Each structure stands twice: as structure tokens, then as C-alpha cells.
Amino acid sequence: MGFTAQQVKELREMTGAGILDCKNALTETDGDMEKAVEVLRKRNAAVAVKKLSREAKDGLVQTYVHGEGRIGVLVEVNSETDFVARSDDFRNFVKEICLQIAAMAPQYVTREEIPTAEVEKQKEIFLAQMGETKKPPEVLAKIIEGKLGKWYSEVCLMDQAYIREDSKTIRDLQNEIIARCGENIRVRRFARYALGEGL
């Protein structure tokens, strides 16, 4: 089965990938759009892994204020060069990160930032929630790992579902921008303030 120029255009708009990459993905998947999107996401992830070791010192600090001053976000996103940091793609990515943080209130950028004591505490909570379950220990361990994965997707920015397209995570979004820009890009840190929070 072939594919049309319109399909290439749609795939490019959905993923931000180059025309040739879109054509190759559609050829590889016999014109199946969903499979082509998945192929491109996997390629983007592979490109991102290669670039992770490169140092990202440039970038942008961005602010976002929502709801007439009720929520504020300050975020730092790094790139390897100021050339990429000034690009529209990069700036749009940073704006999307600000919106994500404002809407979803993550506590950490990645899982690796979570203190071990907090992860252990969360495991204890999940174990207590299961009460007097008569399941074997290996089954309990798998259930707890599943619950931890869901918890990570709530508290870690990179594991969260993207607010504009919940079929992809923020990590997927970051991998797409890395593939387009050809540089290592990473969300370094953020702060989120909500009016009256913690009072």
C-alpha cells in the first residue's frame, strides 16, 4: 500500500519530523499513520539517547503567569548552543513546558531526582492500601511497581502525559525537539507557585 503527499504532510504536522523521515516511516509501515508515528517516536528516542552525553549549557529561562496571577512558573531549559536557544522550535518547546507545569503541578523533573526515602515511603503507602491481601510476594511487588509507575507519571514532569496530546509524554515531546534541532536539550529545573498554596 502506498501513501499520499497529504499523509506525509499530516505526519509531519503531528510529529515535527522532516519530510524524508516521514516518507521513510510511511514506507516502512505501508502507509499506516499510527505505526508511522510510533516508528518516528522510537527514532527520536534513539537520537535523544545519542545526544544525552553532550553538555547543554545554553538555553532559556522562561516565566509564565496564569489565571490573572494565580499560578506562576519559572523554568530553565538548556540547549547546547545559543543558536538553538533562539530558534522558534526551542522557544515553543519551553512555552509548552511552562504550560505543562502550570496545569499539572509536577514536583520533580525526572524520577532520578526523587529522594530514595520518599520512594520507599510511597511503596509503604501502596502496601498499606492493599491491606490483608493474600497475594504472593512476587505479585505484590509487581502491583507496587505498577502503582509506582502511575505515581511517577503524576509527580515527574518527564513522565507526565502531555496536556495537548495525552498519547505522548513530555519525554516524547523533548525527544522530538532534540531530533529536530540536532542538539541535546533538557529541562534543568523549575519552580511553580500557586496563590495561597501551603498556607
Quick one: overall form?
globular
Order of helices and strands: HHHEEHHHHEEHE
Instruction: Indicate the proportion of strand residues.
Output: 15-25%
- Give the number of DSSP strands: 5
Q: Could you tell me how far the N terminus lies from the C terminus, measured between alpha carbons in angstroms?
A: 61 Å
**Major sheet description:** 3 strands, antiparallel
The residue-averaged pLDDT reads 87
> What level of helicity do the residues show?
40-55%
Q: What class do helices, strands and sheet pairing give?
A: alpha+beta
> Going across the major beta sheet, what is the strand order?
1-2-5
Number of helices: 8
| Low-pLDDT ranges | none
Radius of gyration, whole Å: 20 Å
Structure description:
This protein is α+β, with helices and mostly antiparallel strands and 199 residues long. The protein has helices spanning 5-15, 19-28, 33-51, 82-85, 88-104, 116-129, 137-155, 170-181; strands at residues 58-66, 71-79, 161-162, 165-169, 186-194. The strands form 2 sheets. A 3-stranded antiparallel β-sheet has the order 1-2-5. A two-stranded antiparallel sheet has the order 3-4. Strand 1 (58-66) and strand 2 form a beta hairpin. Helix 2 (19-28) crosses helix 3, helix 3 crosses helix 8 and helix 6 (116-129) packs across helix 7. The protein is globular and about 60 Å long. The termini are far apart.
